[in-house]
Amino acid sequence: xxxxxxxxxxxxxxxxxxxxxxxxxxxxxxxxxxxxxxxxxxxxxxxxxxxxxxxxxxxxxxxxxx
Length: 66
Ligand SMILES: [Zn+2]
Prior knowledge:
The protein is 29% helix and 21% strand. It has helices spanning 4-8, 49-55, 58-64, and strands spanning 15-16, 23-24, 34-38, 44-48. The N and C termini lie far apart (23 Å).
């Protein structure tokens, strides 16, 4: 996991999965239950745990965003 990606994204309240649009839960350590992927333009997209399991690879997650 790229740790810098967490400091790039701002966690204010709930975040939504960019693939399924469901709300992503957050742990008390301010980490999301899921992952963050950075696209070619450098934009960070939150992805929930379910979609992370469904797509596995970052490239597949990014293609699912469109
Ligand atoms: Zn999702």
